[in-house]
Amino acid sequence: MSLLELDGVKVHFPVKKGLFFDRTVGHVYAVDGVSLSVEAGQTYGLVGESGCGKTTLGRAVLRLNDITDGAVVFDGTDLAKLPSEEMRAFRRRLQMVFQDPLGSLNPRQNIESILAEGMAAHNIGKDQAERREKIKEILAKVGLPSNAMSRYPHEFSGGQRQRIGIARALVLEPDVIICDEPVSALDVSVQAQVINLLEELQESLGLTYLVIAHDLAVVRHISDVIGVMYLGGLVEEAPSDALYAGPRHPYTKALMSAVPVPDPEVEDRRERILLHGDLPSPANPPAGCRFHTRCPWVQETKCATERPPLLDTGDGHKVACHFTAEIEAGTVKQTLATGIEAVISTEAVATEAVEVSEGDAETADAPVKKEEEPATVPAQADAGEAERAEESPKA
Ligand SMILES: Nc1ncnc2c1ncn2[C@@H]1O[C@H](COP(=O)(O)OP(=O)(O)OP(=O)(O)O)[C@@H](O)[C@H]1O
Ligand code: SF4
Ligand SMILES: [Mg+2]
């Protein structure tokens, strides 16, 4: 059994109206049926664009949000059903590191006081002296000097503050750390240092991570398994290498096609799928496949009516799309039917791109992308054209 298992987790926020906000007029389907497993000592990377429900899912694991439905099984116990008092003991074992370290650190407390607070609440260390020793040890582990204890959050740089956030989680000796956008607020040069620190700590302390990010490059190296989220649900999940070598879901293909390739020749010729349009509102998600309003491969049958389940397509590579096999085989082509706002560029050289990117696709080292106007085809010129496209059969 995995250390952390989510089964059909849903978090729906009621939308209230009325003078006293006493009428529920709808729901925000922020997380809508997510199942995933995180193995002990491993890292699960969760990616997806802003608003797709990543933070809500992370908070649900810690029961910081009410879970509408589903199970969150941690070390054999379903946390979703646990009374609040019993949940307290599990809170220590599951910690969270936030995106904005300054916002999550009390500016009026010094670092020792911030770190000791949680320790005292969870009865770690028998007295202040013992807690102080532990704090010193953890500060050294995260690469901060011991004199940091008497200083205040504003005296540190962004990267150092994130180290304090990590130290605050570590002093509680957790098993799992949920890192929500742990480096998105940091300079690119500092991002790698913090990611490396997380990896070192995982190795030395045997930690298990759920790392949330909107940036594929951030989760790539640290993750064993990556899950791609779209509008409250997982659309693809695979071992990290397999996902980068061959994304299978149209949404992941689009995300990956936006990552530059370090070989200028391949970069010029590779397929680029630019998704237009915003994420639909999670208060009113599209029926059927949630991605069908933006999918460049959308088909007339099933896509708008049946929600595709996340199915294993082999070797643990799971995809939620009715046409995975056909898209791989090329028997279902990209289509510019009504409802799609996609711009599709030149011919596919995906395999070549993947070979090169597998070699040394360190995005930091990647040369600046050569700007070449792709041979674009507007998805939808006008409403009349859209109607006509709707009537005509799709490829
Ligand atoms: N307490 C809440 N009440 C109502 N709606 C909420 C609440 N918290 C989040 N939401 C909504 O749920 C959806 C998912 O939000 P969430 O913060 O989980 O997204 P995210 O993937 O973490 O985005 P980001 O990358 O911007 O952090 C959003 O539409 C958000 O507005
Ligand atoms: S089910 Fe249809 S709309 Fe959804 S990703 Fe697959 S092809 Fe696109
Ligand atoms: Mg978030």
Automatic annotation (TrEMBL):
Keywords: ATP-binding, Nucleotide-binding, Transport
Biased composition (Basic and acidic residues): 385-395
PROSITE patterns: ABC_TRANSPORTER_1, ABC_TRANSPORTER_2
Region of interest called Disordered, as start-end residue ranges on this chain: 354-395
UniProt keyword Nucleotide-binding, yes or no: yes
Gene3D superfamilies referenced in this protein's UniProt entry, alphabetically: P-loop containing nucleotide triphosphate hydrolases
CDD domains listed in its UniProt record: ABC_NikE_OppD_transporters
GO biological-process terms attached to the record: peptide transport; transmembrane transport
Coiled coil: none
GO molecular function: ATP binding; ATP hydrolysis activity
One of the Pfam families matching this protein, by short name: oligo_HPY
Similarity remark: Belongs to the ABC transporter superfamily.
Name of the protein this chain belongs to: Dipeptide/oligopeptide/nickel ABC transporter ATP-binding protein
